[in-house]
Structures are given as C-alpha cells and as structure tokens.
Specification:
Blueprint: H1 2-14, H2 18-30, H3 35-40, H4 51-62, H5 81-92, E1 99-105, H6 108-121, H7 129-142, E2 148-149, E3 156-161, E4 167-171, E5 174-182, H8 199-211, E6 215-220, E7 229-241, H9 250-258, E8 263-271, H10 273-280, E9 285-294, H11 300-304, E10 311-316, E11 329-343, E12 346-353, H12 359-364, E13 370-371, H13 374-378, E14 382-393
Parallel strand pairs: 1-2, 1-3, 7-14
Antiparallel strand pairs: 3-4, 5-7, 5-8, 6-7, 9-12, 9-14, 10-11, 10-13, 11-12
Helix pairs in contact: 5-7, 8-9
Length: 403
C-alpha cells in the first residue's frame, strides 16, 4: 500500500510536465474517458500502477471531469472484466490444465477509436487496449486454485471475442515422450493406409483415448522400415491434439501398450515441444544386425575381407526411395563390423554406422549405387534378408541423416 501511494505521488509529480499535461488535456477535452482508458495513455510513465489507478491520478492532477457513465473509447469493456471472467471459467471447465494464456479478437471499432485518440492526444506512452484487457482477464482467472498464466507455454489458450462477447478455449497439444522397441516385423512406424496398424497407433491410440484428444502424431528419432525390428531403444514422442485431460497414468498406459507384444515402451513422461524439436534433431550412431544371403558359395577367406568396409562408403540415393528423396550421393562412415558365417551362402553381419547409412544397400550394393558393399567385396550378388536395429547410441557424437 505504501509503495502504491508512493507511485501515485511519482505519477502526480510527473504530471507537472507540460507535455504530459497536454496529452491529458487533449484526451479529456475531446472525449469522455473512463479511468482505465485515460490511464492507458500514460502506461509507460509509471509502470507500477494499474491503469485505472493511473487514470484517477492523472484526472486529479489536471483537474479533469469525473469519469463518464459510458466510456467513449471502450464502451465500458474494462468495467465488465469480471463478467468476462465468469464466461471464461465456464468455457474452461471442460478442460484439464495447469497453465493458461489469454488472447482477444479485437473489436475494430474500439481499435479505430483508440487509434484516433492516439493521433489527437499522442500515443507514444500508451498501452493498447487489447493488451491491457488480456492482462486483466488473466489476473482475474489466475485466482483460481492451481491455475497460473503462462504466456510462453500455456496448456490452454482462452480467447475473448470483443465483437460477439463469447469466450472460447483452445487446448495446446500434450506431448508424451519415451523410448520404444519394435519386437516384430511387418508394420510401419507411422500410420499409413496401406497397413492395418503401426507403431503410432499401437502407442498413440491408448494415450489419445485417455487424454480425450482429437488425434495424435508420432515424432521419432529416426525410423526403421516396415520389415525391420528395432531391438534397441528408439526415442520418440507422441503429440496429442486438443487433449481434454493432461494428467495421465503413464505407467498403466505403458503396461497396456506393452501387452500388444509387438511394441514395448519405456520411461513414458510428459515433455515440451522444445524437447520434441531436440529429439528430432538427434543423429546418433546405430548398431545393426543384417543377415546377408549370397547368390553363390563363399569361403571364410573371402569373408575376412568384409573388414575393408570400415571407413567411408559412398551411397547414392537407393532406387527403392528415389520417389520420395532427392537423387544425391552421401558419404557415411562405417565404424566397426563383425561377421559370422552361418553357411556357404549366409552371413550374419553386425555393423556400427554413422546415422543415415542405408544398411540394405550396404549389403546389396544397389547395382553399384553404394560403394563399397558386401556384394562388391565378396564378388557375388547379395541381399539383406533380415535387418534389426540392435542399439541406438544416444551418448555418441551425432552424425547426419536417418536410419
């Protein structure tokens, strides 16, 4: 209270300045203004006061007329903030949230009158009406238990329409991250109409159901082909759109997802959009197991030459993905390779590579588009009959590309 009184004194003293008195005189002479709209003209003179208190101080300092029954500028919009708060609470009751932000759809007639007043009296120290309204409504709503305004990362956004008088609420997405293991072959990472299910549906559908969301999106740290298992733990995040509930029993949901037998999720937790951006930017090295099938018998001496693959390989975009990716040559590093001959025409290869290495083409050579390759080194045609991601090395220096 003492601080507020001191600030009123400071503003009253500032009103002795001829330029400030001229602004107040021009504003009050031309239009009947409420204390709030008068005070907004001087918002940057003393930032420690509310606009209504600032307006009363300015009015008293220049001997202005009392506040009118109806404000020419806002048509008593600021006197009705409590009524707006009642409508906002009713709209917010359908949503579960902890943080919120307030936005407004401005009434163009109020905005035009405000612009005209600034032209007449000067608006270089003023606060726009919509900004002031949003702040006041936010203050009124922040008194509700457990709900705080957060302009940077709100759970929901309250939108007041100054033309219709209605209040709506838009829920921001809920993000849940974790790691998954794909335990079976024969389905893609993301929803695709050519396949009856996907990792996205197996993981995202239960999360979306419990959140009461409209839909969901899967974000992965790379991906694996439909016929590839991921036995290592791949980081991912599910973005749930328009969730009505945000407090989920993630342990119970993980248990439900894992009962599918096809996908296992680990360490589910809520996260932020920034976390998702960081996840999508990861380029970790990976270790794969590939089963190479050969068109002719090879001996152990020939297999020993597979160590020559360690180093740089040049991979032109594989023919199987040319329709969706540019036809360019990429250099990727093979960090290590181990092999075990299962038969004269079968070799199990375990290889650690830079992110973005095409492993199937590393085996087959893709008609010379990947050099060197298993097929080239052994001197016989080869194909990758099976492929598994064994490990995703998140603690390593990132490379560049996707799996």
């Amino acid at each position: 209270m003492i601080e507020r009184a001191w600030r009123k004194i400071r503003l009253a003293e500032a009103m002795a300045r001829p330029d400030l008195r001229a602004v107040a005189a021009a504003a009050l002479a031309g239009h009947p203004l409420c204390d709030h709209c008068l005070g907004r003209l001087f918002a940057q003179v003393d930032t420690g006061l509310a606009n209504a208190a600032r307006g009363r101080t300015v009015r008293a300092a220049v001997g202005g007329p009392p506040p009118p029954p109806s404000c020419w500028l806002c048509h008593n919009l600021f006197g009705a903030v409590d009524a707006w708060a009642v409508r906002a609470r009713a709209a917010m009751a359908r949503w579960e949230f902890d943080t919120f932000a307030v936005t407004s759809h401005a009434d163009p007639e109020i905005a035009q009158r405000e612009a005209a007043l600034w032209d007449e009296a000067g608006g270089n120290m003023a606060e726009p009406y919509k900004q002031a309204f949003n702040r006041l409504l936010g203050i009124a709503l922040s008194g509700d238990a457990g709900r705080q305004p957060d302009l940077g990362r709100p759970d929901v956004i309250v939108r007041a329409d100054h033309i219709t008088g209605k209040v709506g609420v838009r829920a921001n997405p809920l993000f849940v991250r974790g790691r998954y293991r794909k335990l079976a072959r024969g389905f893609p990472q993301c929803r695709w109409r050519a396949w009856p299910t996907s990792i996205q549906q197996i993981v995202g559908d239960p999360l979306c159901r419990e959140a009461g969301g409209k839909d969901h999106v899967l974000h992965g740290c790379g991906r694996e082909d439909t016929d590839v298992r991921c036995l290592g733990e791949r980081p991912f995040a599910v973005e749930i759109l328009r969730p009505r509930r945000r407090r989920l029993d993630l342990a119970a949901l993980a248990a439900e997802i894992n009962r599918s037998g096809r996908v296992e999720v680990i360490a589910l937790e809520t996260c932020t959009r920034a976390d998702v951006t960081s996840l999508k930017g990861m380029r970790p090295e990976k270790t794969y197991r590939a089963l190479a099938r050969l068109a002719a018998d090879v001996g152990e001496d020939s297999c020993r030459r597979l160590g020559d693959l360690v180093g740089i390989v040049r991979q032109r975009t594989p023919t199987r993905v040319l329709k969706r990716r540019p036809d360019i040559v990429r250099e990727r590093r093979i960090l290590s390779i181990d092999w075990r001959q299962l038969g004269p025409r079968e070799i199990e290869i375990v290889v650690r590579t830079q992110a973005g290495t095409y492993i199937k083409e590393l085996v087959s050579g893709d008609a010379g588009r990947t050099l060197p390759s298993v097929a080239e080194i052994l001197g016989v045609p080869a194909e990758c009959a099976e492929l598994d991601v064994l490990a995703i090395h998140l603690d390593e220096t990132p490379g560049d590309g996707a799996t």
